[in-house]
Amino acid sequence: MKRTDVLLSPDAMARQREFTEKIAAHHRQLDHRPLALVDTFGCQQNVADSQRIMGMLRDMGCEFTDDPMAADIIVLNTCAIRENAEKRVYGALGQLTHAKAANPRQIICLCGCMAQQKTVADKVRASYRHVDLVFGPQALWKFPELLWEVYTRHGRVFSIEDEHGTIAEGMPVVRESAVKAWVSIMYGCNNFCSYCIVPYVRGRERSREAEEILSEVRGLVAEGYKDITLLGQNVNSYGKDLDTPMDFADLLAAIDEIPGDYLIRFMTSHPKDAGAKLFETMARCPHVAKQLHLPVQSGNSRVLKEMNRGYTREGYLEKVALARKLMPDIVLTSDIIIGFPGETEAEAMDTISLVKEVGYDALFTFIYSPRPGTPAAKMPDPATRAEKQVWFDRLLEAQNEISAQRHASYVGKTLRVLVDGESGDSRWPLQSRTDGGRLVHLVGDKSLIGQYVQVKITDSNTWALFGEAE
Ligand code: SAH
Ligand code: SF4
Ligand code: F3S
């Protein structure tokens, strides 16, 4: 792909702002301020996309609501990663038939990764006739134009072509908090892990220009954001498609130069591309959180090969050892898939032994879910769901013990946390995060929200730490 074909021109983006203006003018003629509801089903990338959609809706003159019955515009931003994610979306879509029946002028939009699949679009076309607009992640920047088409054509609109994807700069955004922000540094994925749908729905890898990222982060720091997470399916691929030679570690080092009181995190790092340069950069950059999400998926080298992950158990463990050598207090987390097609009990137990050997702070664990169109979905899968569940439960048991132990080791220590909101629990009214990203429930006053405070850890469990502001 040529860079000029990937980067959308300022003219193309200006055209979208014209559509936003037209819609805003149309909305001003209504007898009330239109209400919009944006519901997000997917990962952080999906959340970041929803914030862009909300930005566009705000510029169209909308306010926001959580009530589907009250909403004039509903956007479901969907996820296709596992069957369950898709089922939840179909459930939500089914529910919306009532809202639409009560308010026939309501506009229902389905976007995100699920919407990029032709099979899904066909199903929505045939069976979910109350949906007015379907568009994939690749068409996100065109949302104003597509919505205008719905208003003017009085018919249903589908935009799911363009599988390679583009880079759109300058989209408006509504951030969920004044403390934490997501910054996408790249889009798409070229890795084609054999179980995964993402490369098919998010298109090819494309990196934003470093200057764009740096100016976004500078702006956030100036506005007072303190916790900034860089997003990409594999941030370690950053820069491979840029004309200027720059890799992810260089980008981190450049961001770290921005003065201010903030921390930078990132996800996700693919183990095959993470190495000494990244870890050394993390270790020496004071603004970079000593936290690494390094998804291993499996602890068995045969399964890893079938997954097309590009590393072995031993190779992974060496990288973890190097990261720990350079950053002894690093917080490590991972994703695990249990029950990949053909995985045996012994192989699943290799994963548990790796989990014990590494001693992660926390895990995101999944039972394999076949995704139509991926190579793994065609592989023989003899283990039953019940067997996989037993292996899965053993994994959870092992990790819960490790998390509880790791959390217990914090008790009695005093550390810096960033207070990011209220918890809803009167005993521990505040919620905060350590520099390594661990959750701390806190006794303290609401006025501390948005600030760094020193906290004495008084208690812990498997999921969280508890403490008192000093
Ligand atoms: N790009 C990230 C992962 C994105 S998807 C990475 O490579 O690490 C988040 C997680 O969902 C994956 O790490 C994997 O553990 C899980 N996942 C992806 N496809 C899956 C499938 N078909 N079934 C079960 N879990 C899956
Ligand atoms: Fe999926 Fe693999 Fe890409 Fe992650 S790296 S998004 S698991 S294909
Ligand atoms: Fe889901 Fe798409 Fe993210 S499939 S996990 S929302 S990239």
Tell me what the structure shows:
The strands form five sheets. Strands 2-1-3-4-5-6 form a six-stranded parallel β-sheet, with helices on both faces. It has a five-stranded mixed β-barrel with strand order 15-16-17-19-18. The chain has a three-stranded parallel β-sheet with strand order 7-10-11, with helices on both faces. The mean pLDDT is 96. It has 470 residues and is of the alpha/beta class. Helix 13 (345-358) links the parallel strand 13 and strand 14. The protein is globular. The protein has four domains: 3-159, Rossmann fold, CATH 3.40.50; 177-289, Transcription Regulator spoIIAA; 320-408, Transcription Regulator spoIIAA (2-Layer Sandwich), CATH 3.30.750.200; 414-469, OB fold (Dihydrolipoamide Acetyltransferase, E2P) (Beta Barrel), CATH 2.40.50.140. It contains 14 helices and 19 strands.
List descriptors.
470 residues, alpha/beta, Rossmann fold, Transcription Regulator spoIIAA, 4 domains, six-stranded parallel sheet, five-stranded mixed β-barrel, 14 helices, globular, binds S-adenosyl-L-homocysteine, binds iron/sulfur cluster, binds FE3-S4 cluster
- Computed Rg: 23 Å
Number of helices: 14
Seen as an oligomer or otherwise, the chain set is single chain
Structural class: alpha/beta
Distance between the termini: 54 Å
Small-molecule binders: S-adenosyl-L-homocysteine, iron/sulfur cluster, FE3-S4 cluster
Which strand order do you get reading across the main beta sheet? 2-1-3-4-5-6
The tally of domains stands at 4
**CATH topology assignment of the largest domain:** Rossmann fold
| Known CATH architecture of the largest domain | 3-Layer(aba) Sandwich
Biggest sheet details: 6 strands, parallel
Query: Which percent range describes the beta-strand content?
Result: 15-25%
